[in-house]
Amino acid sequence: MTSALLRVAAGTGVATLTLDSPHNRNALSTPLIAALSEALAAAVADPAVRVIVLSHTGPVFCAGADLKETAAAFDGDGTLPVVPLADLLASLWESPKPIVARVGGPARAGGIGLIAAADIVVCAEEATFAFSEVRLGVIPAVISVPVRRRISARAAAELFLTGDVFSAARAAEIGLVTRAVPADALDEAVEAYCASLIKGAPAALAGARRLLQDVTVRDELARMADASDHYFRSAEGREGILAFREKRAPTWVP
Q1: 24-42: string of b/e by CB count within 10 Å (b at 16+)?
Q2: What pairs with residue 16 in β-bridges?
Q3: For this UniProt entry, which residues form the secretion signal (predicted)?
Q4: How far is 30 from 182, CA to CA, in rounded Å?
Q5: Model confidence pLDDT, tens digit, residues 18-48
Q6: Residues 187 and 125: beta-carbon distance below 8 Å
Q7: Does 133 qualify as catalytic in the annotation?
């Protein structure tokens, strides 16, 4: 399955799901989330698929939630992208098949949620990361569920509260990514991990993955989706998104 926003490619035992919305830096719109969820379910159901790779086109892995769509939803009772994102992260987390993320460029907010839900993450040394939510008047509620299971509480406190950009080296140091490699070695490193994973017996890989899974994640994601929806629709959330789109500082910045 290939859509206008997502490319799906099949290799020997590997299904590659490629975010293909470079015009908005692969922002997580509701249609992209739906396409990714559908492709993930198909890959999980396909006995020929042993490993699932998340990749991207363009220089940015994923800019986070689609703020244009989010702002439009404020005018009615439309569903914010963050709500279906919670279901997608739960499905990624619960997948019986290993997931490898190939990150060739920056990831922000919701994009980091995708990374945290993967088992193995290889990023280019030039990639950068940031939990930018607080600077928009919202909180990293949904993505905190997988992220807090990857990084230390001290690192989470620093990065969630400051919103500062951090490097690929720091991401590897705190456990958010598995390895940071030169950009020209990215594909080779991903292929090497896939080759190793395919050597594992399918049922054993699924069982080993269950050892790493926290069964409370789906319920916690549902609660965090409600919290995130509240903050996005708050006065601060609306102002933060408006300020971002207008390329100005929000009113709370002195």
Answers
A1: bbbbbbbbbbbbbbebbee
A2: 9, 53
A3: none
A4: 32
A5: 999 999 999 999 999 999 999 999 999 999 9
A6: no
A7: yes
The pairing of strands 120-124 and 99-103 is parallel
Give the model confidence (pLDDT) of 63-119 as tens digits: 999 988 888 877 666 778 888 999 999 999 999 999 999 999 999 999 999 999 999
Contacts of 144 (CB under 8 A, 6+ apart): 156, 160, 224
Tokens of 213: 């899974």
- If you search the block for the tokens 């950068």, which residue do you land on? 128
Residue of 38, 69, 133, 239 marked catalytic: 133
Q: Is 38 helix (H, G, I), strand (E, B) or coil?
A: helix
CA distance readout (Å), 111 to 33, 46, 215, 248: 11, 25, 22, 23
Is residue 86 within 8 Å of residue 222, measured between CB atoms? yes
For 83-226, where are the E strands, in sequence order? 99-103, 107-108, 120-124, 128-130, 166-167, 179-181
Q: Mean pLDDT for the chain?
A: 95
